[in-house]
Amino acid sequence: MSPHDATRPLAGLKGALRYVRAYRDHVFVVKVGGEVVADAHGLDQVAAQIGLLSSLSIRIVVVHGGGPQATALSRRLGQEPEIVAGRRVTDDAALEVAKMVFSGTVNLELLCALRRHGVQPVGMSGVDADRMERAARRDLRGDLGLPPGTPLVGDVAAFGWHKAQEVLVEAWPLLLREVPDAHLALIGDGECRPAVEDLARRLGLLGTRVHFLGFRDDVPEVMGSLDLFAMPSVLEGLCTSALDAQAAGVPVVASAVGGLVEAVADGETGLLVPPRDPPALAAAMARILRDRDLGRRFSEAGRVRVRERFSVKAMVGGSRAVYGRMLRGEPVAPVPGDPGPGAPPGGAA
Predict the structure, then answer these.
(1) Contact at 8 Å (CB) between 25 and 346?
(2) Alpha-carbon span 38 to 129, nearest angstrom
(3) 268 — phi, psi (to 5°)?
(4) How far apart are CA 345 and CA 245, in angstroms?
């Protein structure tokens, strides 16, 4: 190596320092397409660059696509996506698929890639609070042949390893000791469903107390009939299903992981428990099911909180406010203790 070659990296670093100083504490929005997320090597390279920028105190907000993934899942579910002039027609069925993909699979893959490179990201999504509130209510108990008033807990999620529905099934015998007539409805599909069904069968719960309902496009209509929503994930983004439940006035019990810590206000809109802890999960569910006044307080508080902080309107307003501050050269960090409706957190999202 010549002396000139040896000094080249140092010269490059000196040149980069000027930009680091200029853009430190600034916020940049990076769009990652669904094709990139689907390419493991490409996603890793993007995540590495974002990790480098984050380590230099350059704040990154990541927005992502997921069109190819949404199309693939739709076809696996027997739904051919309708594309007009290059744009996806979003009916109710397509919207449910999009939620599973964009705020679920794609968001999770991006979060995992960023964490591998030292970034502590939070996945953020908005929910249509108006749609959940105005949806025509239909009691899911009728579909299950259950009498009115039967305690009913639900989980709406793709069956992936990170959703950990098996923990919920393992908690069910413990819950039945406290609430003997409780039933569980698991809505969704995925590669881990057969294993969870087999667990329910071995515990004598399949079809008697634990019901696997598969993919449904009427979640807004039946969500409000639940007494409780449970989300036992071991890794999670923001989890729009938990937000949907609260928007519908349903209290939530969830694992204290990832964005669930922000989506569910512990002791205010629901209860948070340690991940992979069936006894703690069962105890929290029993507490809400047995104390109807507590459940009602959580229900009312959850509906208000989602509308104020996590609705599409709040998210759009918060994002526009951030972009406005950026364009004016103003700091974008929220005032401590007052993040404002829909304001995205620091770090990658």
Answers:
(1) no
(2) 30
(3) -120, -50
(4) 22
Q: Which two tokens mark 87?
A: 């744009």
The structural architecture, per CATH, of the domain 130-309 is 3-Layer(aba) Sandwich (3.40)
Rounded to whole angstroms, the Cα distance separating 144 from 154 reads 12
Do residues 205 and 135 make contact, with C-beta atoms less than 8 angstroms apart?
A: no
* Partners of 230 in the β-ladder: 253
Domain with CATH 3.40.50.2000 in the chain: 130-309
Q: Which helix (H) or strand (E) holds 255?
A: strand 252-255
Tokens representing 288? 């809400």
> Does 3.40.50.2300 match the CATH number of domain 15-121?
no
- pTM: predicted TM-score of the whole model, two decimal places: 0.67
Closest CA to 303 of 236, 251, 230: 251
Domain with CATH 3.40.1160.10 in the chain: 15-121
What does the pLDDT look like over 57-89, one tens digit per residue? 888 888 888 888 878 877 876 778 888 877 788
